[in-house]
Design goal:
The longest helix has 21 residues. The protein contains two helices and nine strands; from the N terminus they run H-H-E-E-E-E-E-E-E-E-E. By secondary structure, the protein is of the alpha+beta class. It has a single domain, classed as Immunoglobulin-like (Sandwich). Strands 2-9-8-4-5 form a five-stranded mixed sheet, with no helix packed on it. The protein has a four-stranded antiparallel sheet with strand order 1-3-7-6, with no helix packed on it. Strand 4 and strand 5 form a beta hairpin. The chain is 17% helix and 50% strand.
Length: 151
Amino acid sequence: MQYRSLSRKYPSRTALGVIAAALMSFSAAVDAADRSQDYRFEVVDQPVAVSAHREFNVKLTKASTGQPVENATIIRGRLEMTMAHHAHKGPPMPMATTMGGEVKVLATSSSGLYRLMGDVSMPGTWKLDLVATVPGEAQPIKGTATFKVGQ
């Protein structure tokens, strides 16, 4: 009868501890790198008027203090609106159509306001996804602002 060593078949508790510590360190590093939850984007002066080339202001604030964030650079922005409707043919089934597009950054003020332009050509609730670089942050931050568009 031949006996095998259990150490070859199962990792030791020390090895499992080292792996667990490495995974926790990696998770903490990922959380530290993405500081997006520390910031908030808000579309001001709602409802925004309907227009294919509407200018509107977005305020960027530090969530913990409520203070405006100055000198950030918005590097990407996208508008989106989802409309529910029924199919024209076949059984009535709810469907959704998404419309939207890119936004253009027009200006930055010293009070943490960022002037954008985008196509909000239908009234309703819109979503604005933004990515910005913020002074003092190693990675860009991401955020979403939901806002109303009206006639």
